[in-house]
Fold:
Amino acid sequence: MHKNDIDNWLAINNLQKDATLRAMESSLRVPIIAQSVDLAPAVGPQVDAEQAWSLATSALLDFLPKIAGMILHTSNAIPRCLTAREGTGEQGARARPFTYDNGPGHLPFVSCDYRGSAADILDVVHEFTHALQIVVSHGDPMPPVARETCAFLGEAILIDWARRHRLTLAEHLDRAWQDAGAVYLGPDADALSRALHGASAPYDYRWNYPLARLAASALLREGNADDVVALLGSGSKAPANLARFLVGAAPGSLPPLSPPTASPVDAYRQVGAITLLDLQTGHESDQTSIGERYDRLLDCMRKQTAFIALGGSGNPVGYALWRSRPGDASAFAVDCCASPGEEETLMRALQSAVPQIAGHVRIAARDIAKGRADD
Ligand SMILES: [Zn+2]
Structure:
């Protein structure tokens, strides 16, 4: 009954099934819970909804001066409701932000259940960019993968702007971007892959996010502001515009390094951090070839079974990789490594971020101590 939903989705977005699968599988899933016990910012970004709207305006004006008029028109004229919704508590289900396209000749409407978190600020610029795209495309409706690519570009442009003008805000936004990415390129990518592999699944709007996220990253890496303007204005022709950015990833390629001010959680750095710790401690150095080691790290990143602990100044001080023991999904074989003297930091960080794994490290550590005593 749902068998054709994925084919319809591919057709609407002008995508080939094989190429789409390749793009999904060659991408590194945004990984891992890399965090430190003391890196979490103590206070929120302290930006109210209209300030968030202004930040979106400033960042987009800065990056896309050629369409300054349309950005200002969007900023000033778009009807919007950015207030926190009644009746949904902190834990309650939040109203999803949305942009409603009122059709050619009419301005879209933006809605955001804004509470002031970094994720909410990204939601505002995301919806702002949806609205801007509708204005710049003059109402010619854009297919959903391209539409979401535009909105993610807006988010990335704001983060980039914040890195240059509001560094603390940039750190908050960067973390929110990484957290959201872990969902888009984790569970959402898995759901899309399953549907592409022929599992009968009803259309889910979230299918659009993984490819859009990859396309936005590729476009910012390989394209420029003119490419962004062209995409925003391309309406129903957007898939042709986007195609070259969707097939760019070579199998097994790593994403580029983030700028130095980005929070230290991107995949490339994580491979580097783990390798560096291996070199520093002599861990793994003589048992495994580089190729085997790389495959193992990549596999852990895709499965989100790698963890890097950061020290007080944000430097990596230890890591853990794990996999389920065959035949028992609740038992894990954990491979741990910490810089000398940082064992406790690694344990504390593991305990706070992935307690189910920390428990197994404790057991493993006791087993090692016992083994040594017996020698
Ligand atoms: Zn969106």
About this structure: The first strand starts at residue 80 and ends at 81. Residues 6-247 form a domain with the Neurolysin; domain 3 fold (CATH 1.10.1370.30). Residues 57 and 75 are 6 Å apart (CA to CA).
